[in-house]
Automatic annotation (TrEMBL):
<comment type="function">
    <text>Poorly processive, error-prone DNA polymerase involved in untargeted mutagenesis. Copies undamaged DNA at stalled replication forks, which arise in vivo from mismatched or misaligned primer ends. These misaligned primers can be extended by PolIV. Exhibits no 3'-5' exonuclease (proofreading) activity. May be involved in translesional synthesis, in conjunction with the beta clamp from PolIII.</text>
</comment>
<dbReference type="Pfam" id="PF00817">
    <property type="entry name" value="IMS"/>
</dbReference>
<dbReference type="GO" id="GO:0005829">
    <property type="term" value="C:cytosol"/>
</dbReference>
<dbReference type="Pfam" id="PF11799">
    <property type="entry name" value="IMS_C"/>
</dbReference>
<dbReference type="InterPro" id="IPR043128">
    <property type="entry name" value="Rev_trsase/Diguanyl_cyclase"/>
</dbReference>
<dbReference type="GO" id="GO:0009432">
    <property type="term" value="P:SOS response"/>
</dbReference>
<dbReference type="InterPro" id="IPR001126">
    <property type="entry name" value="UmuC"/>
</dbReference>
<dbReference type="InterPro" id="IPR036775">
    <property type="entry name" value="DNA_pol_Y-fam_lit_finger_sf"/>
</dbReference>
<dbReference type="InterPro" id="IPR017961">
    <property type="entry name" value="DNA_pol_Y-fam_little_finger"/>
</dbReference>
<dbReference type="InterPro" id="IPR050116">
    <property type="entry name" value="DNA_polymerase-Y"/>
</dbReference>
<dbReference type="GO" id="GO:0006281">
    <property type="term" value="P:DNA repair"/>
</dbReference>
<dbReference type="GO" id="GO:0042276">
    <property type="term" value="P:error-prone translesion synthesis"/>
</dbReference>
<dbReference type="GO" id="GO:0003887">
    <property type="term" value="F:DNA-directed DNA polymerase activity"/>
</dbReference>
<feature type="domain" description="UmuC">
    <location>
        <begin position="5"/>
        <end position="189"/>
    </location>
</feature>
<keyword id="KW-0741">SOS mutagenesis</keyword>
<dbReference type="Pfam" id="PF13438">
    <property type="entry name" value="DUF4113"/>
</dbReference>
<keyword id="KW-0742">SOS response</keyword>
Length: 423
């Protein structure tokens, strides 16, 4: 018998995290906007009931926002990241292993708890998360990740499950799969959905019953594994070791158009330094850097976009070296007379720093000195706040900084923003 797997998912996570520190938001329709306050990326149940769709541009729903008193908040990723850590701390005693799938979802290995009533076990876990964080959750349980994911969706949509759906029970599993659209199954993309629908497969149950040879013949091992998982055959256990990343990117839209190269370079320098920080936190170095920037493709003005890819030799996670190479690429790609609205840095060819290939004329003394410099920089910014110590190229004015007109305080990570209660 396979080890039971659970998926715990925070409901309307960004909105729930905001409500944890602002009780005035409870019962009120809330929307959290993307970078630059552009689109809706999280909606409370009240906002969903008013017809606010995921990805709706905020400027297109202004009339609805005004008519219904919808609170629109700027995204506060520092708060959401810290609340995620608190959720995981509440969940930890209830699972043998945890695989963080996204900021609001985690797979749980329930091995060792099989002798318990797992529905009651999951309800106790939900209660602890709610008590510790005020964030509501739903849980799906199954013999595979795919079935746990389906169970979670069922628990969220159908009040009969009271927040926990256990799909190890075959009659319940069959009932859910027969009513679950195939296009909503985890791992089924739009192209695959069209293919299987052409074969008359419209539900998760029909996909489960698809012959394995037929799934394989459609040219994707993912579909074959998906069919197996829907039948209760695990394709993979909970991953407790994060797979090594192949690439990473730091890209942002600007709060206002940029027409000056030095201002653009300030943004690119910040993104390159942040990319280097991410590399070092994962113990990686990069062998290739791409710098990119472009104008607003939807604006009625001259358009231009460019990217330049350069090799990093030797491979590095040194932020200052990344800035130097990014500047070289940006200088070659720059064109006067355009208003740029987005820029970014992408890093590829990532390997473990310990396995970094050495170059023939590499100066080990200089390399060690730069590594210590980066470590000191990380310590300073970690202790006193990001961007406390920055290269001169980055600057401090940051005219290009993203709009965040309605961003909540850093309730949990900045001492000045900690809520104060007076009796």
């Amino acid at each position: 018998m396979s080890t039971p797997i659970a998926l715990i998912d925070c409901n309307s996570y960004y909105c729930s995290a905001e409500r944890a520190f602002d009780p005035r938001l409870k019962g009120v329709p809330v929307v959290v906007a993307s970078n630059n306050d552009g689109c809706a990326i999280a909606r409370s149940d009240e906002a969903k009931a008013l017809g606010i769709k995921m990805g709706d541009p905020v400027h297109k729903i202004k009339d609805k926002i005004k008519a219904h008193g919808i609170r629109v908040l700027s995204s506060n990723y520092t708060l959401y990241g810290d609340m995620q850590r608190r959720v995981l701390a509440a969940v930890e005693p209830f699972a043998r292993d945890i695989e963080v799938y996204s900021i609001d979802e985690s797979f749980l290995d329930l091995g060792g708890f099989e002798d318990r009533d797992l529905v009651a076990h999951a309800q106790a876990m939900r209660a602890q998360v709610l008590q510790w964080t005020t964030i509501p959750t739903c849980v799906g349980i199954g013999p595979t990740k795919t079935l746990a994911k389906l169970g979670n969706a069922a628990a969220k949509k159908n009040p009969l499950f009271d927040g926990v759906a256990d799909l190890r029970d075959e009659p319940i599993r069959d009932w859910v799969l027969e009513r679950f659209p195939v296009e909503d199954v985890w791992g089924v993309g739009s192209a695959t959905a069209r293919k299987v629908k052409d074969l008359g497969i419209h539900t998760a149950a029909a996909l489960r019953d698809m012959p394995v040879k037929q799934a394989r013949s459609m040219g994707t091992v993912v579909l074959e594994r998906l069919v197996a998982e829907l039948r209760g055959v695990p394709a993979a256990v909970v991953e407790t070791i994060e797979p090594q990343r192949k690439g990473m990117a730091v890209t942002r839209s600007f709060g206002q158009p940029v027409t000056d190269f030095d201002v653009l370079m300030g943004a690119i320098a910040q993104y390159a330094m942040r990319a280097g920080e991410k590399l070092r936190s994962h113990g990686l170095v990069a062998g290739r850097l791409t710098v990119l920037f472009h104008t607003n493709r939807f604006a009625d003005r001259p358009q231009y976009g460019a990217s330049r890819t350069l090799s990093l030799h030797p491979m590095t996670a040194d932020g200052l070296e990344l800035v130097r190479v990014a500047r070289k690429g940006a200088e070659h790609a720059w064109r006067d007379g355009y208003a740029y609205t987005k820029a970014g840095v992408m890093l590829e060819d990532l390997v473990s720093a310990e396995l970094r290939p050495r170059t023939l004329f590499e100066d080990e003394t200089d390399t060690g000195r730069r590594e210590r410099l980066m470590a000191a920089l990380d310590d300073i910014n970690g202790k006193f706040g990001r961007f406390t110590a920055v290269p001169g190229t980055q600057g401090f004015k940051r005219e290009w900084q993203m709009r965040a007109a309605a961003k909540s305080p850093a309730y949990t990570t900045r001492i000045a923003d900690v809520p104060v209660v007076r009796a």
